[in-house]
Amino acid sequence: MSVDVEQFLERMTWEQKLLQLQIVWRTDAAERDDLVRRGLGATFWPPSAADVNALQRIAVEQTEPGIPVLIGLDVVHGQFTIFPTPLAQAASFDPQVAAEDARISAVEARSNGVTWTFSPMVDVTRDPRWGRVVEGFGEDVHLASAFTAAKVAGYQGADLAAPDSVAACLKHFVAYGAAEAGRDYNTTDVSDRRLRETYLETFRVGVANGAAAVMASFNSLNGHPMHAHRALLTDVLKQEWGFDGVVVGDADGVAQLVDHGVAADERAAIALALEAGVDVVMGGSLLVDADGTALLTPADVSPDRIDDAVRRVLRMKDRLGLFENPYTDAAAAVGGSPEHRARARRAAERCAVLLTNGGALPLPASGRILLAGPYARSRDHLGAWVQHFASPVGETLADALERELPDIAWDVADGADFFELADEHLADIVERAASADLVVLALGEPSRLSGEAASRADIALPGAQRRLIHALADAGARIVVVLATGRPLVVEDWIDRVDASLCTWHLGTEAPAAIAATLSARVNPGGRVPMTFPRAVGQVPIHHDHERTGRPPRTGGELLRGIDAVASDAADLAGPNNTDDHYTSKFLDLPLGARFDFGHGLSYTTFALDGLAVTPGAVGMDTLDAGVDVHVTVRNTGERDGDDVVMLFVTDEVASVTQPVRRLRGFRRVSLAAGEPAAVAFRLTADDLSFWVDGATRVVEPGDFALTVGDGTSSLTARLRVEASR
Ligand code: NOJ
Q1: Residue 250 catalytic?
Q2: Distance separating alpha carbons of residues 475 and 176, to the nearest angstrom
Q3: Which residues lie across from 716 on neighbouring strands?
Q4: What is the mean pLDDT of residues 700-714?
Q5: pTM attached to this predicted model
Q6: Nearest to residue 527, comparing CAs of 405, 332, 669, 652?
Q7: Rounded CA gap, 133 and 469, in Å?
Q8: Cis previous bond, 362, omega within 30
Q9: CA of 248 to the centre of ligand 1 (A)
Q10: Average pLDDT in the 107-123 region?
C-alpha cells in the first residue's frame, strides 16, 4: 500500500464517499469532466490517453480529497488488435492463447489510459441459444476455470501498478449463463449443488488467482436478483472466499431492481444493492446530484458498509499505482502494431476446429476452386464485443486464399448476403461450380448475431445460406464449408452433405490469414469444440458432463454410459428413431447423442493413445493428498506434424449424490511431429475426485472411479480405487 486508505476515509464527507461508488458513462466531455470535478470515482474511457490525463488532472488537482479516477472499458478480446472471441480461444484448449490475448489487451488498454477492463466473462454456458456464449469459455467448468486463471494473469501481470497491467473483472456473478430458454437477462433457478459445482467455480478460481473485481449479473437467481443477493455477494464471495476487491453492478443493473420488482424506486434499489454487497453502481441515477445532495442518507445504508465499499475502491486504485502516478505517458500509447497482429494471428491459428473431413481438406495446391458465400468477401470476422476503435480486418478471405494458394485458379462469387439469397445468384454459383474442382463455401453468423441481447431461438445457419449448400450438393459439387460463428449451430440438415467443414468461430483481426493457412495445411487444425453442437434446438441445454439418470438410453442390450452415451456416431447404434428401448431418456425424433461432443475436433494427421497407467491404482483417503498420477502416451501416427488434445475424464461410479457421467479433470494440447510420441502426465488430487453434497460441503467418497483418457477420437479407460483407509 502506498497510501493510507484509512486516512482518506477519515477526511472524506458522506457525499465524497458516495461519489467514489459510482461509474458512469458520458459521451459529452464537458458533462463528464464536471462529474469528475465533483469527485466521481470511475468513468468509461474518454477515449485517448491525453483525455484520460486531462481527467486525472481534474480528479487529482481540482477535487478534495484528490482521488484519481478509475477508467473502465470492456476490453474483452482486444481493444485495437482483436484476438479470437473467448469461445474461439477456449476451442484452442490452450490457456496460453487467452493469456496472450489478455497481455496484448492490457498493453494496448493501459497505455491508452484504461485501468479497469470488464472482462473476463467466466459464465459457464450450456445453452447455445444464449448469444453471450461467445464471450465465455464454453460449457466445461474445468476448461473455463483454466482459461479464467490465464486471462486474469494476462490482464493483471505480476504487478497491477505496471504500465502494462489492467484490473480484471470476473463477470457476471452468477449463473447468468443459466438463463431460462437461453433468453438474455432471463430468470435463473439453480440448485445450491449445481451452483457450487458449476456456476460459482470459475469465479472461485478467478478470485483465488487475484482478480481485482467482480461484476454482478442481471439475472435473478432462485427468486433473488443478483444485484441484491447478499448471501452470494457478501457471504460467499467476500466472506467465505475472502475477496477484498470491488464488486461492481452491471450497466443499470442496480436501477433494474425496480423492474425485477424487489425495490419500489431507484433510491431503494441502490440502498438494497449496496447493503447486499455491490460496491460500485454502474450507470443509473447519480448518487450525489449536481447541487451536492446525496441520494442516500446513513439511515438508508449503514456508514460501515459505505466505508467498506470505499475502502475497496481506494485499495484497487492504490494497487493500480494511481495515487503514485495517475498519468499515462501519452507519447507511449500503443494501438495496434505489426507485432500485436502477428501474435493475434498465431492465436487465431490455434482456434479453428476441423469438424468433418471426407478428404476434401487440406485444399490442393493447384486446380480450380470456386469461393462463395457471405464470408468470401465479408470483413465481419471480429466477433461480438469489439468497439469502433478496433483495428479493421485488412483483407478478405478471398484475398488471403489468393495469396496463400497462388497456383489455384480462384473464382470468387461476389455479392452473397448473410440473410438473403437471390435466385439468380444461386443459379450463377451452381453454374460456376460445374467448372470448378471444389467449392469453398464461407458461411456463418455475422458478429451481431451473438453477444449481449443476441439470443436466437433457431440456431441454424441464418437466412438462406443452407439453400446454397443444398443446391450445390444436389448439383454434385464437392464442398468445403468454412463456418464462422459466435456459437455452436445446428448443422444437422447439411453437415453430411459436404465433404469437409471447418469451424473458425470469429477469429478477430487476423481471421482471413489464419483461415487460409489452415485450409492450405500450412497450419494443421488442432482446436476442439468447447461447447457441444446439438443435433436440434430441442436438446438444449446440453453438455457433455450431464448427470446420470435412472433410465439411460440403451441399445442392443448394451448400456451406453459415460463417454459413449454422447458419442456422435450413436445414431448408428440406436437406429433412426431410437425406439429399441422405449422407456429411456431420449427424444423419439432424434438419434442419441449430440452432433459434435465437447472435445470433438479432427486433424490432418492421426493420433493413437496407449499405455494408460494410474499410480497408485488404489489409494487410501488418508494418503489422497499426495495425488494420483495418470500417464499415457500419445503418438502422431500420420504423415504431417499436428496437435492433439488429450483429455482426462473422471467418473465417480457410486456416490451418495448422483454424479455426472464424466467430468473433465485435465487436458493438454500437444504438438507432435509426424511419427513422434509424447508422454502426457496428469496429477489427480482430492479436489478432482470431490463433489458438493449440498451448498455447503465438499467431499470425496471412497469407491471406484473410472478414469478415461481420450482425444475426442479414441479413448482408454482405467480404474482408480479410493479406500476408506489403507
Ligand atoms: C453490460 C454487459 O452485461 C456487461 O458485460 C458490460 O461489461 C457492461 N454492459 C459495460 O459495458
Answers
A1: yes
A2: 45
A3: 709
A4: 96
A5: 0.96
A6: 669
A7: 26
A8: yes
A9: 11
A10: 98
